[in-house]
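hey m, so remember when u said the tokens were messed up on ur end? i reran from scratch. heres the input so u can diff it against urs
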Amino acid sequence: MATDYLTSLKNVAATVAKYVQDVATMEVVTKYVEIGTEATADFSQARPVASTVVKLDADSETVIPLRKGQGGVLEVDIALYEIHQRNVATAVDYRARMMNALLGALRPPEGGA
């Protein structure tokens, strides 16, 4: 019984280590596709409009959509930026829940091991 638990624990630890390595850098890219008069859009032609890279140590980089406004002043495209921010928040939340689930699997069962 103890051997089975230790084997399971080692397997979970290996899974957690691989997951941590895989998620050390998370990239969220929000893309657009132009919809024409046709009934379907060609999603293979989607182009990026915003990008965020978040590293496990919390360093991040974001590229946001800007357009030239009056007098050539750059303005944030608020609608696209808000969509992108929701995508980033969803991805960060998902990564946190997955890490918590994997780390929870490493905890010994209630009542001892």
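this time it looks ok to me. DSSP finds two helices and five strands in the chain. if urs says something different then somethings off w ur setup not the seq
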